[in-house]
Request: fold
Amino acid sequence: IMGYSAMTVRAGNFGMVSLACHNVLMRIFFFFATVGDALSQSAQTFLPGLFYRKGLQEKDVEDTATVSTSALETSRGSDDDNNARTLLKRLVGISSVAGIVNCIFGRYIALNAGGIFTTDSALVSLMSRVSPFMGLALLLHPLTMALEGSIIAANDAGYLVATYIASLAVLLAQLKFICKDFSGVWHAILLFQMIRITQFGARVWKRTASSKVKEADKLADNTLSA
Reply:
């Protein structure tokens, strides 16, 4: 919220036309952003159950005295890992398709349907000029939100807070020191999405890779024990 508010304030520094254009573009952006919000909620709804059950099974394995039962619990934990990875892949696929659709339709509205929002030719022209940056931001937004939702589902609050602080700091610095015109405001929005998707993607990839390694080690240990 603070980041988007700062963007609006910065847009106002370039005049009333720029501020009006920014408000229209933000309404278009937030209309399509609801898709990303839905994907984030999906990750937060379905992933925690898999993570929680896996945690309980891992605890049971540590407390179990027999090898056969440990192997069974490890197998169940492996199934939950596979289910979580499958769900993540589906969310990534759906997010990618949704991002492409949002980009096409969002940019089309800003580029060709500005007259729906205003009769001011200067405002319509400015919307068209900035529309590529809004379209690219919409392209990244669904995947960004899906990855963010998976991190929330994993209860990785410390990393999430750190990324919020870092990305917000970069955004505010760009708005203050680099942004020289209204187009720069939407440059900043695009960069903001790029930073977030990189941070969240790296975290999810790392956790997934780590989970695969642990799973392989447990199977190897059980095989040797047997």
About this structure: Helices lie at 2-12, 16-63, 67-112, 121-153, 157-178, 182-225.
